[in-house]
Amino acid sequence: MTRVKYVGKVAAIAVLYILAARAGLQLDAVSGFATLVWPPTGIALAALLLGGYWLWPGIFLGALVVNVWTGAPVIVAMGIATGNTLEALAGSYALRSLPGFRLSLGSVRDALALIVFAAVLSTIVSATIGVTSLHLGGLVTRGSVVETWRAWWLGDAIGALLVAPPILVWASARRPLLRPPRMPEAAALTVSVFVASLFVFVVPTATRSAAFAQAYVFFPIMIWAAIRFGQCGAVSTTFVVSAIAVWGTAIGHGPFVQPTLHGSLFALQTFMGVTAATFLVLGASTAERERSEKELHAAYALVSKANRAKAEFLAVMSHELRTPLNAIAGYAELLALGVEGSLTQKQSDAVGRIRTNQQHLLALIDDVLSFARVEAATTAITPQRVRVRTALDALEPLVRPELVQKKLTLTYDSCDPSLEVEADPTKLRQILLNVLGNAVKFTPRGGRIGLDACRDGEVAKIRITDSGIGVATENLDQIFEPFFQVDSGTTREHPGVGLGLAISRDLARAMGGDVTIESALGKGSVVSVALPIATS
What we know:
By secondary structure, the chain is an alpha+beta fold. It has helices at 3-25, 40-51, 56-70, 74-96, 108-136, 145-162, 164-171, 183-201, 208-213, 219-250, 261-337, 345-375, 388-393, 395-406, 425-442, 500-510; strands at residues 384-387, 409-412, 420-423, 448-456, 459-466, 514-519, 525-532. It has 3 domains: 1-174, Arp2/3 complex 21 kDa subunit ARPC3; 177-257 and 276-379, no CATH class; 384-532, Heat Shock Protein 90, CATH 3.30.565.10.
């Protein structure tokens, strides 16, 4: 910062301080110096927070001039100016020392810090030094010290609560606080604030009780400002209401009018202090919520992008892995057909095992790829009317070899032939095959598997029941987690990577349904696939 620029800033702060101080001192100052309306506190605090501690001479100079102008001896005025300067330095230092403090007051923590450190605590410094200087200078008698201190402290505290926040919020904004689409609503809010404030604090009322009841008329408007416009709306409307309230009270109108102007302003400023603190916290809470929502959306977008990248990577890897697997399958087929010469029985068995493992590995690759696509939301869902009976009839031929091999009995309870669901036919078949495949895999030789479907309110439930090994109660919450396997011990009897149920549930939810399981260890399982019933 150049010297000229620095001097200009100091001079500007001093001038603003003097003008605001002279306006406040016109309102029935106690002992001529302690006023209940003291905007300079907010100006000084905001100046040091925005411009840095090195601007303190502007505060000292402004306070010195205004107190000499008011009639204080130079030595007393210097004491008062010292207290005012230390107050601003203490408040700004306390807030700047708070880790993560935002000048925009965008969190409840920031708002509470300003209330406690700047409005309540640092103002004690100025009130104490200022009143002590006046007493030692003979301008305040011992009997009026307490009253003077109270007025001084309250005036400074309200100044910090009402004046500093709008300056900080508007000056620290990194983008326009009001966007064009919000301008009509902002205009309506502004008109409402002025009309309500004039109605409460300026328009005369018939009785005092009616006037007091009107004091809360503007509360809904201030809530509107805080919720719709965040901290900007909260602090701006509070400042406007306070300015009109002071004016109205000074001319003898409003709910807080007392026999003396000092009593009126004391009642008003106490009320406005509580109001300002309340809506400062409400505005911060709204800003905090909006910021959390933006961060959540940003995180969701990042995760979605990562999932899509993962799906693309797995698709490429799937293609690259399929190429050698297809070559292995091709050569195994040639050997099995005897193209390269006849094979012995042992050689034929070895070729058969090669083909079996190739098919198993290919199935695992397909499972991983399907899961990645569902997770990344790249799997296209095309809902249409699907007859449940038709979907179930198509399952048995697809698993018949496994049923025969393990001598399993598949029973099919008839359901309403007209029952239809809103689903993607291909994805529904994948869901049912995954669930039925699990039932076949985990049901011991000679066991039973059942299929049935029924209406359940607005959804159709397709149930696959088995007499398999079941799932322990403590594992039911994990059964739909990717890569979780029921038999995950040191020796695994059943093949797979534990993605079937995870894929099935994600696909069902993408179609507006769900997959649930009921099971007990050693007593089999019942997996229910719920899908929305097709409407006419």
